[in-house]
Amino acid sequence: MSQSYNRGLIEDFSRWREFSAGMWAWIFHKFTGWVLVGYLFTHIAVLSTALSGAAAYTNTIQALESLLVVRILEVGLLAVAVFHILNGVRLLFVDLGVGLEAQDKSFYASLILTGVIVVASIPTFLSGVSI
Amino acid sequence: MSTQVPERVEDESSGESVSPGKQKRDQKKLERAERIQEQREAEAAEKARSGDDTYHLKVFRYDPEVPGKQEPRFDDFYVPYKQGMTVLDALMWARDHYDSSLTFRHSCRQAICGSDALFVNGSQRLGCKTQLSALAEPVRIEPLPHADVVKDLVVDMEHFYDQMEAVEPYFQTNSLPDGELDEQRQTRENREKVKMSTRCIWCSACMSSCNIAAGDNEYLGPAAINKAYRFAMDEREGEDMKQRRLEILEQEHGVWRCQTQFSCTEVCPKDIPLTEHIQELKREAIKNNLKFW
């Protein structure tokens, strides 16, 4: 062997075409986890307006809630949180060694359940907002 | 399908007693037979290219020793289909009839030697265990991802073997039976517990599919952890040995790197529940370190 060939990053990414359920679950779990961490910062920022008085807090909340884009982002946040919770429960079972042969089905179930919950929540989230 | 092209007709009567004339005639006969053979192969190749019942293979090619082949590329091969033909059969046909420099590892052709794990149509599979009829055309055959390519479909397995060796993949015990000639008996239940883990053929398909092993070169990888499981769960090794094995496994790049993506379990040609074994070793490692009494 005189030399060997490292196919490098391009090859690594190009092979990511055939994902199995477990792989998608892992990607989504990472992604939703980071989104939730990001949300935590905005959450703290909004809550800390209460430091400068009750009126400031109420104003901020009312201003934010009157925006359509915020309402839509809230639906997205719910989707992310619900998936993270459901997949977290799935991972808990995986860690306990329970139902490992059904891990793909439980992933699909958590996806569908997330979808259902999010769709059901849309009327609540988008009620009373003026475009 | 045979590895070899059928042998040419040997001239049996070419002894010393044969007259020069007959030798010449035999020589001619042999040449003609060779010519016909070559012609027939060329015709077969032509027919294979145009015929319906052929499979189109796209095979990764790379040869560092030939200047013109240093740039990786895909070669097309059209292989006539026979019922029951596997990816390995097709590769061997292509090598025997088109390009004898096509390089790949294979030995037993029955999923035991673990030499021919390939990346076929976007998934790690054993060439000898994958039916062509189960694949969509063109059948794209590449060397295993996340390993350096030595030539064509051959990857450098050294790192994989190093990881396997790191978990001490052999039976060791310090609790021997009393009599010198006594056997080390294993209970049926215990044998059943390690049964699946003993089936590993060291093909490296799991290691290649593992996303974590790709990013962390020190990670033991599914195969090595499975090997450790096989011995750590073997009751005959005794508590001391189990302790020693868990100490190897619970290190930073041991079982805790696994993030349960299930890729290894998915691709394992021997259907070993790798993720399940890794998860069980994680629990064992926790139980080993957490004691409330």
> Quick check: average pLDDT of chain A?
87
Largest sheet data of chain B: 5 strands, mixed
CATH superfamily of the largest domain in chain B: Alpha-helical ferredoxin
Shape of chain B: elongated
N-end to C-end Cα span of chain B: 64 Å
CATH structural class of chain A: Mainly Alpha
Number of helices of chain A: 5
| CATH hierarchy, class of the largest domain in chain B | Mainly Alpha
- Overall mean pLDDT score of chain B? 87
Please estimate the helix content of chain A: over 70%
Strand content of chain B: 5-15%
Keywords (chain A): Heme, Iron, Membrane, Metal-binding, Transmembrane, Transmembrane helix
GO molecular function (chain A): electron transfer activity; metal ion binding
Protein name (chain A): Succinate dehydrogenase, cytochrome b556 subunit
Subcellular location (chain A): Membrane
What does this structure look like?
The complex is a heterodimer of chains A (131) and B (293). Chain A is built from five helices and no strands. Chain A has 131 residues and is mainly alpha-helical. Chain A has one domain: 3 helical TM bundles of succinate and fumarate reductases, CATH 1.20.1300.10. In chain A, helix 2 packs across helix 4 and helix 4 runs antiparallel to helix 5. Chain B is 38% helix and 11% strand. In chain B, strand 6 and strand 7 form a beta hairpin. The longest helix of chain B is centred in the N-terminal third of the chain and has 31 residues. Chain B is elongated, with a radius of gyration of 26 Å. Chain B: Keywords: 2Fe-2S, 4Fe-4S, Iron, Iron-sulfur, Metal-binding, Oxidoreductase. Chain B: InterPro entries: 2Fe-2S_ferredoxin-like_sf, 4Fe4S_Fe-S-bd, Beta-grasp_dom_sf, Helical_ferredxn, SDH/FRD_Iron-Sulfur, Succ_DH/fum_Rdtase_Fe-S, Succ_DH/fum_Rdtase_N.
Helices and strands in order:
The complex is a heterodimer of chains A (131) and B (293).
Chain A: H1 8-14, H2 21-47, H3 54-65, H4 68-96, H5 103-126
Chain B: H1 20-50, E1 54-61, E2 73-80, H2 87-97, E3 117-120, E4 123-126, E5 139-142, E6 149-151, E7 154-155, H3 158-166, H4 188-194, H5 205-209, H6 211-215, H7 222-232, H8 238-249, H9 263-267, H10 274-289
Parallel strand pairs in B: 1-5
Antiparallel strand pairs in B: 1-2, 3-4, 3-5, 6-7
Helix pairs in contact in B: 3-7, 7-8, 7-10, 8-10
